[in-house]
Amino acid sequence: MVEQHAYARAGLLGNPSDGYFGKTISIILRNFAAHVSLHQSPQLRIESQEIEHKEQDPDIYRGIDHLMEVVSGQGYLGRARLVKAA
After folding, report:
1. pLDDT of residue 25
2. pLDDT (tens digit, 9 = 90+) per residue, 33-79?
3. Which of 2, 7, 25, 64 has its CA at 20 to 30 Å from residue 19's CA atom?
4. What is the dihedral angle through the alpha carbons of 32, 80, 83, 69, rounded to the nearest 10 degrees?
């Protein structure tokens, strides 16, 4: 199993694509973070930790090829749009 988290950041000055040539000043907000856990599985499952979504079935795919096929046909629908895009 692999677990990682990334803290939220708030940009105070600059933007990687603006006239500051990618230089930015930002702060980390340790009260807000994204957490990811990867487990070995015969299927690709995208599950949400949010309480209101626990009652719904998670997105389940036969593998990465099946996920790509579904996204190609239906687009990035559902609650995990950013995860599917990544």
Report:
1. 85
2. 888 888 888 998 887 776 554 545 568 899 989 989 988 988 887 77
3. 7
4. 180
d(CA 7, CA 86): 17
Pairwise CA distance, residues 54 & 22, whole Å: 39
- Tell me how crowded residue 39 is: count the other CB atoms within 10 A of its CB: 8
Cα distances (angstroms) measured from residue 62 to each of 10, 38, 51, 56: 37, 16, 25, 19
Contact (Cβ atoms closer than 8 angstroms) between residue 28 and residue 7: yes
The Cα–Cα gap between 39 and 58 comes to 15
Place of tokens 């070995």: 40
pLDDT over 70 (residue 20): no
Rounded to whole angstroms, the Cα distance separating 73 from 18 reads 35
pLDDT > 80? residue 27: yes
